[in-house]
Design brief:
single chain; 87 residues; mainly alpha
Amino acid sequence: MEAPFVIAKLITLVLSLLVAYLAYHGYRRNDNTPMLYVAVGFVFIGAGAICEGLIYLVFGTTIVSAALVQAAVVSSGMVLILASLTK
């Protein structure tokens, strides 16, 4: 796997987990349930950032099926963030 690709995915993972941590901290500080949704949503987005490559390499699937799983995971995170905005 190409090093720049791995570095870009790891940066995305770290940034999304940092946002998730800050959102969770805001949830704990203010007991604000929508912030919990934001935190979990960003965890899903971060997991989606790395799951495509892992699924492709570990399970030997096609890149299309790995991308489909990634899209589902990231979409789930987006739905959680959207739910936090409507509460």
